[in-house]
Amino acid sequence: MRQSEMLVPTLREAPAEADATGHRLLLRSGMIRQVAAGIYSYLPLGRRVLLNVEQIVREEMDRAGCQEVLLPIMQPAELWEESGRYTQYGPELMRLKDRHMREFALGPTHEEVVTALARDEVNSYRKLPFTLYQIGTKFRDERRPRFGLLRGREFIMKDAYSFASDWEELDRTYQVMNTAYCRILERCGLDFLRVEADAGTIGGQGETHEFMALADVGEDTIVTCKTCGYAANLEKAAFQSAAPAILTNKPKVNEHTEVLRVETPGVRTIAELCSFLGKNAEEMVKTLLYLADGQLVAAIVRGDHELNDIALKQVLGCEELELADDATIAAHSNLTVGYLGPVGLGLRMVVDADVATMKHAVTGANEAGMHLSGVRPGVDFPLDQVERIRFAAEGDCCVSCGEPLVFTKGIEVGHIFKLGTKYSDAMGASFLDRNGRQCAPVMGCYGIGVSRLMAAIAEQYATEEGIQWPVSVAPYDVHLIPVSWKDEHQQKLTLELEQQLMDCGFRVLVDDRDERPGVKFKDAELIGLPVHIVVGRGAAEAQVELGAHMLAVSGETKRISMKAQEA
Ligand code: ATP
Ligand code: MG
Ligand code: MG
Ligand code: MG
């Protein structure tokens, strides 16, 4: 490929808002451009990298025996109502109406569509197990799109869904997918860890693991034990603490909610807690409290309305409650303190808010079928019954071997879940087993962020000058750089080399531009192809300069700088 004919708009400086090293270099090397917050165009070089990553993912999915499909991005709201996620998903779900005012959602993930497909098409154990996958566009209206492709609102994901007749069958598929994920990340040249994880809004009844690319820019914290190899996401990590009141259960959080560690000495009642928190009001944007039996019991929410709204929805999502409508949610968002706890089959909610807000919230919640009771004023809920939850922190130790835990930052590039029958039950998918009994297929789902992978690679392979792409995903293998394209000898040798390299199966980019050598070298460093061949003064004697930043990718990655004279 001739560079003079290619759209590669390199930049000396990255736009000021570019907030991560890899992202700045993807912009500077002319690989991507922002169209709107969290929405990007892939330019020719960037598209080639993305396709290479996709191809690795596709090959490993095919090797794992999965079948490729393509599911629609625009999905009828009814499907999401069936699973109960139309309300639960919150503002991250992009909603729209067609010309007949029918409601749709842009798929942030495809459990609903794929479960409906299985419900309609699979009715016998003889058709199980199978796994479908697709590589395509997802939409999530992320509250804080950032770091370029790392957290986009429109992004490319590979998502796979497995259907099995029982848990053992699911366990086997989960293992196969686990291996496939490790292979994908190794082939991408990533330094990564597999960690125990939390199921988030996808939910499910079984275990779940995340694959974390190690990078300082990562928004996840990984907790590891160097002695026994324990590794978990902070949200999930078990730990031993020196503090006496150890909290056993982990709150469900995402980027919208966080659990703040607050010491509350002597606080025994909600009223006392409120007055205590009042002193630290600006810090207390969102705090969650949990009961020891794993049930969510309380949410203390302060701060702006949007945060309250999201945090409360998140909290309610934990109990799998549905709010009736936005009016109800808006009412909740005025609460300063909310308490939710399982009381019999219903729920109790104690709210410290003004009376009008309270009435509105209780009415709204009752309309939504929630059983709410408890009123202001003066509710004194004894906090001794509540064990406060905190996450593992520096100084805490591993539960199995007692060694100090280590904390590192990671980018969640992949996530695999044992869903069980959550979706098949909710959406009525079933099959007849060997004995003619009707059963729900046991599902698993497996996501990997293809565009996020590209960004994670950029992050791990970034240098001051550019991204040194691993061979496996680099847009081309060899950058052929004649110092002066107009020089007859250089041009001739360049074209000969190009032909020979292509004959050997290499992908070659020729910088045939009429640019100063300095400009060409700077661009070549930015683009970061694995091998550079500079055709200069020695061309008449068939001499070139060879530079390679990387000679191996799979397994351990070596970065080697070398200069050689090639006859
Ligand atoms: P995060 O915790 O970063 O928000 P998630 O847990 O919401 O991610 P999943 O629902 O597990 O994401 O989706 C599967 C994969 O899709 C993730 O592991 C990640 O690689 C990718 N992904 C999720 N959200 C985004 C996004 N906003 N931009 C790019 N990739 C994403
Ligand atoms: Mg998310
Ligand atoms: Mg996550
Ligand atoms: Mg996840």
Please give the structural blueprint.
Layout: H1 21-28, E1 32-36, E2 39-42, H2 44-63, E3 67-68, E4 74-76, H3 77-83, H4 85-88, E5 94-97, E6 103-106, H5 111-121, E7 130-139, E8 154-164, H6 167-187, E9 192-196, E10 208-214, E11 220-224, E12 231-233, H7 270-279, E13 286-290, E14 296-301, H8 305-318, H9 326-332, E15 337-343, E16 346-352, H10 355-367, E17 406-420, H11 422-427, E18 431-432, E19 438-439, E20 442-449, H12 450-460, E21 478-482, H13 488-503, E22 508-510, H14 517-527, E23 531-535, E24 544-548, E25 550-552, E26 558-559, E27 563-566
Parallel strand pairs: 3-7, 21-22, 21-23
Antiparallel strand pairs: 1-2, 4-6, 5-6, 7-8, 8-20, 9-10, 10-17, 11-12, 11-17, 13-14, 14-15, 15-16, 17-20, 18-19, 23-24, 24-27, 25-26
Helix pairs in contact: 1-12, 2-6, 2-12, 9-10
